[in-house]
Amino acid sequence: MNSLLRLLLLACSFSLLARAEEPPAKADDKAIPGHSSNGEAFNEGPRQAAVLMEGTGNVNFPVTTENALAQKFFAQGVGQLHGFWYFEAERSFRQVAFLDPECAMAYWGMAMANINTPKRAADFMKLAVAKKAKASHHEQLWIDAYSKFFADSNADENRRRNALVHALEDVTYEFPDDLEAKAFLVFQLWDNKQHGLPLPSRLAVDALAKEVLAVNPMHPIHHYLIHLWNGADGDKRAVAAAAHCGQSAPAIAHMWHMSGHTFSNLHRYADAAWQQEASARIDHAYMATARIMPEQIHNYAHNNDWLVKNLTYIGRVHDAIDLAKNMIELPRLGPNQSNAYDMGRERLLSTLATYELWDDLIALRDTLYLAPAENPVNETKQLTAFGIAYFQRGDTTHGEEMITALQNQLKKAREERIKAADTAEAKAQADKKSDDQIAKAMADAMRGFAYRLSTAEAAIAEVQLYRALATGRTGEAKPLLAKARDIPSERRARVLFALGDKEGALKMASEASNADTAQVQPLANLAELQWQAKEPDTARATFEKLRKLSSNIDLDMPIFGRLSPIVADLKLPADWRTPMIAANDVGVRPDIKTLGPFRWHPYAAPAWNLPDAHDAMQSLAAYRGRPVLAVFYLGSGCSRCLEQLNVLAPLTQDFSAAGISIVAISRDSPDGLQRTFEKSKDANGFPFPILSDATLEAFKAYRAYDDFEKMPLHGLYLIDGNGQVRWQNISFQPFSDAKWLLGEAKRLLSVPASETKTAAN
């Protein structure tokens, strides 16, 4: 494992070495700057060289090639496919094609890495078909099986899926020793079920997978077994696979994550959190090495979202908050591309409220972390949490402000509903619809606001309920409690207790705890209420159940602090937690701190020192202490590049007001930079420095370079005053939404530099 991590950390230097040894690519002078000369499918995806890694899965898949290195990269790519590490799998297969352009299976692999992007998959598969004549009969069967599947995505999907299963069965029948055919058949049978096709017997598919494991016990097919048994009370049959999944391909973060599915569904949250934390740490190490943005990684946001949830279940509240905040700090790729950001905000708000960290919640209001939400329902939930927090802390003034804000949310929703109905009516009338059709159109338009309206109404009742409790007006509280539908059961139980309904409170708290006896917060809540209700024996019994789960909890949480009377009664020490008993069915686990950092943090921007049009040298070091937006563009002959520069130019003052300088870096020579200035829409030229990187060394250092076709790519980088890359976009086309980027830059730079450098462990 340690050697694997050293390999990952040194991957960039290996990549540079690999480039030096690679033969030159053939250039196509007619290609649009940044676009691949090999076709549209090659524009997207990884365009930097692959490196051989340890730990991507023990697979054996011989293909027709005389290049031994190409064979190694092919096997690596297949292992990455099994781990759903599609981005890196495509990179490995591109490396195969670079080393041996006639290897038909390289293009098969690229298609397989794009199973979720069928058009690109179909384009790659066409190349595999075109080159299959030189492949073996065995390889031709593989190509034929998937070329038919990808050929026409508009054809009946069920028919195509069933045909693929039959084709993989044919490969397995003719080549019974081909473990990969069996592995991909197991995957396809499961995947077909995910898309609505019947799977009569999971046990039969399990038996097929066991044939693979009988020959290769550490084959990454463990991944598919977890998926196969996931849910429907089948997870207990996947524990053995969960114990080997990450270990079978330790370099692939998703392989560690998958065991978290099994353990979460079995309510073994500490084991699930370990798996998901391992996944997060490996991803964070990989991001720093490969220098890609977090949201480029399949399943990354999902893993960390689930990890935060499981951390709250076991009481690791500080870590849960830290990771949720880190998710919010992550760079978003572009407009409407904010999965991690949205999930992080939801988890942060939920965790703070669940553990009654009202002061912390209030402190985050209007910050990067809990700024007003664009989504009305999310904003309603946020205002609700703030309102409760203020009344819980005795701040009625701000609490009243939150009630008013919620009432305004409700008013706005009602106004928008009427407007939507009017718009629907006008359109239906213009389309000459009947009266019934017009009425239906209006009703449909209004129905879309039902959840938003009901959420706002329930939120107002909930905050008014806490106002009534805070001001001693308990007579108002009971009817408000009935209207406040979204109060979690644990808090509802506490409200019932405060209103004198001890029996109802204990019943609800008990039901909440019994719903999932492995979560620590509901148990602690129940124990406290039982003690307050003068039921010491049941309180002690509940507390002992909590102690068995207590190894991870943060004792400084209010809910645990309020258990001090029970702790004193039992004559326990202040730290009453019990040591964790390690499970014996999780496989051999590495030291988790060796896998990578707990949080994501930006990577250090490579240094550059480049001449301007007058041969005066300018360096990145000169910008130390203030952020800079570095624009790597493909010269004065690139029309899209000039459009990008002319979009940025009018916003230069806005960026400057935000403390951000702009510098453009061109592939042109210093003498050639003048042609760029001549194409400025402003008579005075561009209002930022333009530098020359004619050798492309800076382009390569920033990975704005296609290693396979030996061409520069468009690159845009936000570098903070400490020299860390906070945001980047590397593509075959320039990023042009400068106004969005300005807002995102302000958001990212509001995170203190110390926050992005949190210790690795």
TrEMBL record:
<dbReference type="GO" id="GO:0016491">
    <property type="term" value="F:oxidoreductase activity"/>
</dbReference>
<dbReference type="InterPro" id="IPR011990">
    <property type="entry name" value="TPR-like_helical_dom_sf"/>
</dbReference>
<feature type="domain" description="Thioredoxin">
    <location>
        <begin position="572"/>
        <end position="750"/>
    </location>
</feature>
<feature type="signal peptide">
    <location>
        <begin position="1"/>
        <end position="20"/>
    </location>
</feature>
<dbReference type="GO" id="GO:0016209">
    <property type="term" value="F:antioxidant activity"/>
</dbReference>
<dbReference type="GO" id="GO:0006950">
    <property type="term" value="P:response to stress"/>
</dbReference>
<keyword id="KW-0732">Signal</keyword>
<dbReference type="InterPro" id="IPR000866">
    <property type="entry name" value="AhpC/TSA"/>
</dbReference>
<dbReference type="InterPro" id="IPR036249">
    <property type="entry name" value="Thioredoxin-like_sf"/>
</dbReference>
<dbReference type="InterPro" id="IPR013766">
    <property type="entry name" value="Thioredoxin_domain"/>
</dbReference>
<protein>
    <submittedName>
        <fullName>Alkyl hydroperoxide reductase/ Thiol specific antioxidant/ Mal allergen</fullName>
    </submittedName>
</protein>
<dbReference type="Pfam" id="PF00578">
    <property type="entry name" value="AhpC-TSA"/>
</dbReference>
